[in-house]
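Our example copied in:
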Amino acid sequence: MQEASPYRLNTRGVDARASELLYEKILWADEVWCTVYLSDGSMRLRAVGDVFVSSAPSQDMGRFAEAVALVESHGSVNLDGVSLRLFWRSLHALRPTDTIFVHLYDADGALIGQADGDSLNGLLPPSAWRPGHLIDDNRRFVTDGALSPGHYRITVGIYDRATGERYPAFDPSGKLVPDAEIEAGWIDVP
């Protein structure tokens, strides 16, 4: 994604200070929007999320280790494809190499789409999240083409890019979830 952009912003490694500065701006703003450059040369603005101080505790959909809770998830199908809005609660600091995976499965369990990467369209790595804050993370799925009508399952998780190791996932009762991915919902494509 970074290579395709006319702008360069490294929010990891030696330039990770950019994440701290960006985080302050995100907290100040009402919402974060990104410019999407289309193949015909036109541009479109797309809301990618927000960050704010977490409100009163709620029943989470699950958590990853003791680091992150998935609070809420909303999937939708529109003319642009499949979108997903995730709400994460940061509980503890994450490693600089940690990121998010989001998978879309068909009714037979085959992986047919992904929306992997850092939050807010790649602008904010999970290592920049501050404990006690809620991250509103809007994503679009990349698929190999238009989806056939059907029922699709969405799962999410946190993993270390350097090792490929996934954070253990737990359901709301504290039970370990297989494959370290929490079900974020289902969508129907008409």
About this structure: The chain has one domain: 13-189. DSSP finds one helix and twelve strands in the chain.
